[in-house]
Amino acid sequence: MLRTVEELDTPEGYKAELIRGKIVVSLWSKLR
User: In angstroms, what is the C-alpha Rg of the chain?
Assistant: First the structure.
């Protein structure tokens, strides 16, 4: 989980993280 600060500061990177998080949460909910 090592990420550079510049990567997290970019809107594209932030949006990608949000989308990835939503996908993980949705998949986790289906598995439970």
Answer: 12
